[in-house]
Give the backbone structure.
Amino acid sequence: MSDGLPPLHTLPAFAAAARLGSFQDAAAQLALTPSAVSHRIRVLETHLGQALFVRGHRQVRLTEAGQRYLAGVAPALEALSAATSALSPRPLRRLRLSVAPALGGKWLVGQLAAWQTQYPDIELELTTSIDLAPLLNGEADLALRFGEEDWPGFDAWKLFDATVFPVCSPALFNTLDGLPDPSALLRTRLLRHPLLSWSRWFAAAGLSVPEPERGPRFNDALLMLEAAVAGQGVALMVDALAAPYLDSGALVRPLPCACPDRAFYAVALPRGHAQPWITDFIRWLVHRARG
């Protein structure tokens, strides 16, 4: 029997074979050949001067000496593994979100502090976009968008339905003589967005009016909200996005009529949410959105 430490590469082979009862299974777990595992254990037994296993045809079992040795070796290996893990950098877990600007600024950022408290080791990366190109070109894992129910080629999870209504600045409202009926809006400057239909809102208000062809057109709802605050016209806006402006008094509703519209969705490519923390975030976000 030799004094001092045995060859350290023999110890994982010994522990795996003892736990699994098979040199072949230990080899598969350690990515070695069965003969390599057998050789390492023979080296260890030679070093110790004692047999550690009783060999069978396909299985092995520990001798009494092997049991005593495992009782000392297993905790030491666990301690070495823990010490190594503590010093090794954690693999980066990153969640890349592409968010429509208004939804990101007026809703999402108010939710993320709770997520980061619950999952502090996940790195968030947020960018803004109004289309799905970031998903298609691999720059984002998940997109938050406003749209219809069907998202061909994508997986989608509804966050919340949207209701739309007109909003304008208090100063502009004071020039409109109280807007006694919805048709009075036709004499004002209407701010337009490609996903928000004035004709649908007018129909809900009882008027058959085609989609306006004139008036400033915005592809960013946040810019349109700021234009409304600046008094540039009356904007048709989603309730969730208009709420902070209404609460602060920066915007008012000139008419009470509102109508259902599309909805907000979390959208991903089918292969894009395979990582468990992305699935966890989607589940968490849906729960937050639905209260």
